[in-house]
Every structure is written in structure tokens, then in C-alpha cells.
Write a structure and sequence with these properties.
This protein is an alpha/beta fold and 252 residues long. The chain is built from 11 helices and 8 strands. Helices cover 50% and strands 16% of the residues. It is elongated, with a radius of gyration of 21 Å. The protein binds NADP nicotinamide-adenine-dinucleotide phosphate.
């Protein structure tokens, strides 16, 4: 059984470890023994635990799950050269990872919040010889897509990485709108959740424009509401959100 060495014991590390634990041997490296114990407890499985200081990464397959700001500090604590680094760090380039962590190969990956329920939309790019292996490892928490460049990964980060926050805003606003018109809060939340559940299925196979045309009859209620969304600039605000997120990713 292949060993995956998690660097970092936080939320994203735990989500990925949950997805991998039945098919891989898990090892976790962190800076605090109590937090490593908590990681093991939450995972529900005995794992090898190590402190970061002087940890030998020689020939290891690393899953880097610390914060982008920690790369230099963490990299300085290792000795040896890893086989490959799979990184989940937002906005942290392959060049920066290679500069700070000695390894034969690097793959950048960008999971999203749905990793915790095994439904992440994860984009990946980097050393092409690890495309298949990255797909197997990150595939344990959902769907993966290999992209052609880091530029594409940084753009996709704004879409799928940040996307849950954008959709949460829309979800909350729609429910608030229903409450404003007099629907009880509990009902509004249930209806909104049902809406997103069904929509999540439909959008897999149907183009958004076709979905919209399907519900929007001439002079009807949907057309009235849709006009209000266009008046409010929702479309251009969504496009600007991706632009701003991409700009930010480039600055990290
Ligand atoms: N959460 C998401 O939805 C999401 C989505 C895509 C990508 N990511 C990426 O995933 C990475 C981890 O996010 P997360 O949500 O798992 O964060 P998190 O729960 O806060 O975990 C961060 C981890 O980094 C460690 N750490 C922090 N400062 C450190 C330092 N100075 N030296 C060594 N280790 C340090 C923490 O150690 P302690 O436990 O000891 O504090 C912890 O293990 C981030 O780079 C983020 O960009 C997250």
C-alpha cells in the first residue's frame, strides 16, 4: 500500500485523508503533537505522526496542506528530497514550491470546500508525468480536472475554489427575498436547499442557457424575476468576481 505523507493537519488535510484512508497508508507531519493526535482521532485510524523539525522527506509522496504563507518556514525544516509534492496551497506557484521544498516533481492542486463531503471540484497542473497519480490521489475527494497551465489553475481557483462562497451569497439572498415577501424562514431555507440540490444535478448535463429557457415562459414569473437580476447587474458582478479573485491569486 502506497504511503501518502500529509504536511499539515488542518481541515483540508483531514478531508483528503478521509478520502484516502482505505486505499493508502497515511502519515501526518505537523508542528504540534496534540493537533496530530486530534487529526488521528478525527480520522478514526492509527497513523504515523511526526513533528516537522528535521523530518526526512527522502523519496516520500507529500501532500502539502499548510497555509501559503508557511511554505518557506516549513520547507526549511525538511531534510532530503521528496519523490513528488502534491500541493493544495492557493496561489503558490510551482516555482516557489520547488524553490522551498526539494523534490523531483510538483503538482499544484486546488480542491474546494466540498472535499469534506467527497464532492470537491479539484483542478490540477504541474509535472505532467504525475497527472495520473494526482488524479488518483485527489480523485478520492471528488472530481478532478488537469489544466494546461498555472494561469488556468489560478483562474479556476476563482471559480471552483471560491465558488462555494459566491453560491452561498446567492443562496442566502434568494432565501432572504422569500422571507421578505412573507415566507417563514425555515420554509425559505428548506426550499432554497431543495433548489440547489436539484439544480446541482441538472447543471451536470444541461447548458445553463437551456435550463433558463426551459423555465422562462413569455411574460411569466421567471421572466419578471430574471429581469430584476439583470437590472441588478448580477451577471457582470459574477464575471467581475472571477476577475478579482484571479488578480488576488496572482498576488499571493
Ligand atoms: N479549506 C478550503 O476550502 C481550501 C480549498 C482549497 C485550498 N485550500 C488550501 O488548503 C491549505 C490548508 O487550508 P486548511 O483549510 O486546511 O487550513 P487549516 O485548517 O488552518 O490548516 C492549516 C495547517 O497549516 C499548519 N500551519 C499553520 N501555520 C504553520 C506554520 N507556521 N508552520 C507549520 N505549519 C503551520 C497548521 O498547523 P496547526 O494545526 O499546528 O496550527 C495546520 O496544520 C491552504 O493552503 C489553502 O490555500 C483550502
Amino acid at each position: 500500500m502506497q504511503t501518502i505523507t500529509f504536511i499539515g493537519n488542518g481541515n483540508m488535510g483531514l478531508s483528503i485523508a478521509q478520502g484516502l484512508k482505505n486505499n493508502y497508508k497515511i502519515e501526518v507531519v505537523g508542528r504540534n503533537l496534540e493537533k496530530l493526535d486530534a487529526f488521528e482521532k478525527a480520522l478514526g485510524l492509527k497513523v504515523e505522526k511526526h513533528l516537522l523539525d528535521n523530518f526526512d522527506i527522502t523519496e516520500k509522496t507529500l501532500l502539502l496542506c499548510v497555509k501559503p504563507a508557511n511554505v518557506i518556514e516549513v520547507g526549511a525544516k525538511f531534510k532530503g528530497k521528496a519523490r513528488v509534492v502534491f500541493s493544495v496551497l492557493a496561489g503558490t506557484s510551482v516555482a516557489k514550491l520547488k524553490e522551498n521544498i526539494s523534490s523531483d516533481a510538483v503538482v499544484r492542486t486546488m480542491p474546494n470546500l466540498a472535499a469534506s463531503v467527497g464532492r470537491s471540484m479539484t483542478t490540477m497542473t504541474g509535472d505532467i508525468e504525475f497527472k495520473e497519480e494526482a488524479g488518483e490521489v485527489l480523485g478520492s475527494i471528488g472530481t478532478t480536472l488537469w489544466l494546461d497551465s498555472e494561469k488556468e489553475l489560478d483562474i479556476a481557483t476563482g471559480l471552483a475554489g471560491s465558488g462555494p462562497a459566491y453560491l452561498a451569497l446567492i443562496a442566502e439572498a434568494l432565501a432572504d427575498g422569500a422571507v421578505k415577501q412573507g415566507l417563514k424562514r425555515d420554509y425559505a431555507m428548506s426550499v432554497m436547499r431543495g433548489l440547489f440540490g436539484g439544480f446541482g444535478e441538472l447543471i451536470q448535463d444541461i447548458h445553463p442557457a437551456i435550463l433558463k429557457d426551459g423555465v422562462m415562459s413569455p411574460g411569466g414569473t421567471t421572466a419578471a424575476g430574471y429581469g430584476a437580476l439583470e437590472d441588478g447587474g448580477v451577471r457582470s458582478a459574477c464575471m467581475a468576481a472571477i476577475e478579482k479573485a484571479y488578480e488576488k491569486a496572482k498576488q499571493l
